[in-house]
Amino acid sequence: MPATDLPLLIDAARAAGQIAMLHWRADPKTWKKSDDSPVSAADLDVDAALRDALCGARPRYGWLSEESPDDGTRLGAEHCFIVDPIDGTRAYLDGQVDWGLSLAVAEGGQITAGVVHMPAKDLTYTAAIDEGAFLNGEQIGATSATSTRDATLLTSKATYASANWKEGVPHFSRKFRPSMAYRMALVGEGRYDAMMTLKLAWEWDIAAGSLIAAEAGAIVTDRRGGPLRFNSETRRTNGVLAAPAGLHAAILDALA
């Protein structure tokens, strides 16, 4: 990883975050994508600003973004930017604060630098491989939870379906945040014990957060405990689970 990748991501995230804030609570034009999810003029403006800043500085890097067409050329690149311009678009359009920008660099299928920037909350989570995870410049760490009983779990309601668990749903303390990138960063911060999704996860939702959680000491895998690989042809992973080692093992053991 070039030594300047993380500073580049931070600068781009903060600049694009200002663009997002200009549209926030200002009734930007919105429409539905083919999967019926919302998108707005703000998403596209932020996406364009990030692409100009990042690919302008690293023209040989590939580009994978939720809001850009994917022509597959990124698959031949040694490095690839993986970006979600606004993660938590529904919350953003509702005027809530729990949305953010997710920016990462992948090299050889592995995330080497990541930023989750939350402009409305004035929070910037950062990580570079083997260098730890930080929130607004202060190092952070995951919890040491080992048991599912009363562990705080960030996930959607669908996860708690009884069919997903061997012997009934464990006694989690149930929590939720609309941005998946933010959920992973919160695990890295130690404010919550774990996050997971059992559904296929888009890479742009989890790339940056996966490194932040891992560098903070959490174990981050797919829903079966396998390694996550990025800049893939499918652009998806088989779910994701991020938790401290003991709790991670306990959740995997409890899952059906």
TrEMBL record:
GO terms for biological process: inositol metabolic process; phosphatidylinositol phosphate biosynthetic process; signal transduction. GO terms for molecular function: inositol monophosphate 1-phosphatase activity; metal ion binding. CDD domains: CysQ. The keyword ATP-binding does not apply. Mg(2+) binds at residues 66, 84, 86-87, 205. Pfam families: Inositol_P (PF00459). Its cofactor is Mg(2+). InterPro entries: Inositol_monophosphatase-like, Inositol_monophosphatase_CS. Keywords: Magnesium, Metal-binding. SUPFAM superfamilies: Carbohydrate phosphatase. Belongs to the inositol monophosphatase superfamily. This is Myo-inositol-1(Or 4)-monophosphatase. It comes from Palleronia aestuarii.
